[in-house]
């Protein structure tokens, strides 16, 4: 089958992406056209110095090709179109008018790309793009329309106003809705009976302890125990006060945070605490070497409407490296309750770390690796593929 994948992240994104990982697995079964999101006027104005946006501008100006066959069964398409920036429009009527206009422009380009590579009948896989693909079931007329919900997007500032109104209708349109957490599955089932929790994967080739051959110099000198975190360091998703509490109450622990910070973290008290170390952004391929140095890996998640339903893929990555994991208890973390330490409050989080340090063993390490081995993108996409073959119209 032929599948057109659209979503919120371009193929050349620097961070990990569920949608890209799914596409890489789908090409084992199907031909895939992965469509990068198009430019809009405000993004060009505000972010034209961003290398990812500069790449899109080069394509738009015809300095670079818009359609590339990256490997067998996989094409990457960057549409030469500029959409209107409409999210700040307050009027529902005006927003819907310009959103439909944007959809029509975008869909026209996708149709042209499909014609160029011979996609006549195809499945449309929409990765959480509420606005730009809202009218695509009618405009593109796919054989099967799949909506993939992997974040509670309507609780973010960008989607809160219009997304709250539109996402439910988008789920109703979909023939299938896949989610990566049970929380999001429950949400989707308010609008459809065809919503399925399909799980989450991790990079089995990257997060493997046996591949670690050396220790990075900037963490090698840090004394143990090291309580570590990797990922985006953003106040929307992480609890700053929890980290301050841990650092102040256990001065013998070194809390190591790896990833890009937002302004709230940069200006926080954490930077004045001697046992909190920020190591900055690291290349994706280096993260396992840092996790390998952790005594306990943590996810000090802030619990709010944006985060409560998110499946933190870093948990599987930590477990795949054999590390004991302590995390904030949420509904999405329920599936990890038997293999991780889940905390309900600050004192509980501290006590869970203490327990994890005492109880760690080679036997528990292997149990964690075995648990994570079931949560692979191969298994996720195999489950998706079974549902797709059940629901796609028979020729």
Description:
The protein has 395 residues and is an alpha/beta fold. It has 2 domains: 2-201 and 376-391, Glycogen Phosphorylase B (Rossmann fold, 3-Layer(aba) Sandwich), CATH 3.40.50; 209-373, Glycogen Phosphorylase B (Rossmann fold, 3-Layer(aba) Sandwich). 39% of the residues lie in helices and 17% in strands. It contains 15 helices and 16 strands. The protein has helices at 18-26, 41-47, 51-60, 92-117, 136-140, 157-173, 182-188, 217-220, 240-249, 263-266, 287-291, 313-320, 346-359, 362-373, 377-391; strands at 2-7, 31-35, 39-40, 67-71, 74-77, 82-83, 123-127, 144-149, 176-179, 195-197, 226-230, 254-258, 276-280, 296-299, 325-328, 341-343. It has an 8-stranded mixed beta sheet with strand order 4-5-2-1-7-8-9-10, sandwiched between helices. A 6-stranded parallel beta sheet has the order 13-12-11-14-15-16, with helices on both faces. A two-stranded parallel ribbon has the order 3-6. Helix 1 crosses helix 15 (377-391). The chain is globular. 41% of the residues are buried.
Q: What class, by secondary structure content?
A: alpha/beta
The CATH topology name of the largest domain reads Rossmann fold
Query: What would the principal axes of the Cα set say about the shape?
Result: globular
Q: How many strands appear in the DSSP assignment?
A: 16
> Cα-atom Rg, whole angstroms?
22 Å
Mean pLDDT: 93
The helix tally amounts to 15
Indicate the CATH class of the largest domain: Alpha Beta
Reported for the largest beta sheet, the result is: 8 strands, mixed
Beta-strand percent range: 15-25%
CATH architecture assignment name of the largest domain? 3-Layer(aba) Sandwich
Strand line-up of the largest beta sheet? 4-5-2-1-7-8-9-10
Q: Terminal Cα separation, in Å?
A: 11 Å
Q: What fraction, in percent, of the residue positions are helical?
A: 25-40%
Number of domains: 2
């Amino acid at each position: 089958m032929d599948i057109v994948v659209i979503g919120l992240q371009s193929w050349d994104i620097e961070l990990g992406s569920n949608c890209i990982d799914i596409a890489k697995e789908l090409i084992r079964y199907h031909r895939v056209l992965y469509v990068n999101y198009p430019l809009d006027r405000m993004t060009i104005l505000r972010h034209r110095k961003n290398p990812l946006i500069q790449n899109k501008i080069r394509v738009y100006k015809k300095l670079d090709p818009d359609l590339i066959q990256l490997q067998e069964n996989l094409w990457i398409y960057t549409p030469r179109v500029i959409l209107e920036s409409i999210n700040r429009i307050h009027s529902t009527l005006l927003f819907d008018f310009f959103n439909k206009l944007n959809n029509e422009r975008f869909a026209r380009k996708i149709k042209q790309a499909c014609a160029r590579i011979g996609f006549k009948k195809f499945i449309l896989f929409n990765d959480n793009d509420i606005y730009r693909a809202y009218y695509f079931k009618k405009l593109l007329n796919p054989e099967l329309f799949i909506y993939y919900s992997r974040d509670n997007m309507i609780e973010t500032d960008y989607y809160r106003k219009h997304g709250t109104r539109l996402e439910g209708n988008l789920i109703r349109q979909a023939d299938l809705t896949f989610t990566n957490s049970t929380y999001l599955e429950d949400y989707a089932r308010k609008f459809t009976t065809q919503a399925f929790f399909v799980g989450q994967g991790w990079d089995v080739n990257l997060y493997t302890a046996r591949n670690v051959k050396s220790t990075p110099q900037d963490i090698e000198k840090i004394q143990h125990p090291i309580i570590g975190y990797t990922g985006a360091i953003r106040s929307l998703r992480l609890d700053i006060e929890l980290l301050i509490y841990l650092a102040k109450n256990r001065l013998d622990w070194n809390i190591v945070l790896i990833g890009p910070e937002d302004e709230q973290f940069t200006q926080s008290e954490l930077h004045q605490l001697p046992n909190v170390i920020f190591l900055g952004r690291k290349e994706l391929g280096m993260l396992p070497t840092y996790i390998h140095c952790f005594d306990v890996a943590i996810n000090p998640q802030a619990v709010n409407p944006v985060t409560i339903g998110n499946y933190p893929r870093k948990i599987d990555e930590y477990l795949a490296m054999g590390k004991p994991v302590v995390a904030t208890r949420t509904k999405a973390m329920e599936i990890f309750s038997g293999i991780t330490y889940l905390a309900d409050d600050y004192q509980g989080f501290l006590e869970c770390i203490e327990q994890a340090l005492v109880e760690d063993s080679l036997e528990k390490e292997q149990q964690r690796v075995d648990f994570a081995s079931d949560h692979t993108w191969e298994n996720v996409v195999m489950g998706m593929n079974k549902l797709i073959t059940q629901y796609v119209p028979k020729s």
